[in-house]
Design brief:
This protein is 48% helix and 15% strand. The protein is an alpha/beta fold and 249 residues long. The protein is globular and about 45 Å long. Bound molecules: cytidine-5'-monophosphate.
Amino acid sequence: MTEVEIEAERKLIVALDMPDAGEAYAFWQRLALPGAVAKIGLELLFAGGVELARKLSAEGARVFVDAKLFDIGNTVERATARVAALGATFLTVHAQDPQTVAAAVRGRAGSSLKLLGITLLTSTAPDSLGAQGISLPSAGLVQLRARFTADAGFDGVVSSPLEVHDLKAAFGGKLAVVCPGIRPGTGQAVAGDDQARTATPGDALRAGADYIVVGRPITQASDPAAAARAIIAQMAEAVAEMHGAEKSR
Ligand code: C5P
């Protein structure tokens, strides 16, 4: 593997969206991507995913606990401390209320757990904000929430590939941006696809994403390890281009 490919692999988060921890563990082993991040979401968390997070972390993998926490401060603080004790690398927390965000920062004290804010679910249609009593447009709401999240000491936010550019313009290196909604553009369709606003792996990185989250294009592929390697190759191309642009500046 070249240095650029190693760098690209470290930016890949694989969503292990499956109903069984044993199956997810075997799948992760078959992928054989030591530099990538294993994402354990709500479905798997309720099917042995917590123990899986502990096991993979102990084996040296970086684990992303996609628990999207949102509760009173005391509960969020204590739950965050438990996730940190698993050895996980990333945890998501809803960034709707500055109190929740501050509580998560207290909860990870003394650990290396990185906190990522969910500013707005990408499934939220802009016209549904009014029904929730929110008068700000979605872009303004994302910026407002990203601001208090950064100020509280979060490490990053999750955003659609279409918002990355504005977030990076406003926050630069202060907030890492993690993008789901990635489709490799190889013509292979994803069954039951519900992602509307998508980008290719290379274009998401070019727009400024620090990490990309890929689920079904890998988990549903006839050869998942080959699909992951093809995605890493697309990412490596973008990383190499960006290094080239930095050098010529
Ligand atoms: O299968 P697919 O590549 O669409 O998977 C994307 C993953 O990213 C899923 O685990 C999904 O829950 C997650 N995600 C998302 N949109 C967000 C936040 C997380 O698709 N805004």
